[in-house]
Design a protein that fits this description.
Layout lengths: L1 H7 L4 H10 L3 H19 L3 H21 L2
Helix pairs in contact: 1-3, 3-4
Length: 70
């Protein structure tokens, strides 16, 4: 179940819903999302098949977040 939950986090769209709901600064949300996905990648994705499924998304999101950091 943890793997399925983590996989769902690799859709970038929740970032914008969370940002609007929390009304936090955009840089703060970018940092929060980066930290959350790193935790999911390192701790929640325990099945190799699950990691393989989201590996390209994870890399793409990391590149995107790196460009958004100020």
């Amino acid at each position: 179940m943890a793997n399925a939950d983590a996989i769902s986090h690799f859709d970038i769209m929740p970032l914008f819903f969370f940002w609007r709901a929390k009304q936090d600064s955009f840089p703060g949300i970018v940092t929060w999302l980066g930290d959350k996905l790193k935790r999911d990648w390192e701790k929640k994705l325990t099945l190799p098949k699950a990691k393989k499924l989201v590996a390209k998304k994870y890399e793409a999101i990391q590149m995107l977040l790196a460009t958004l950091k100020v």
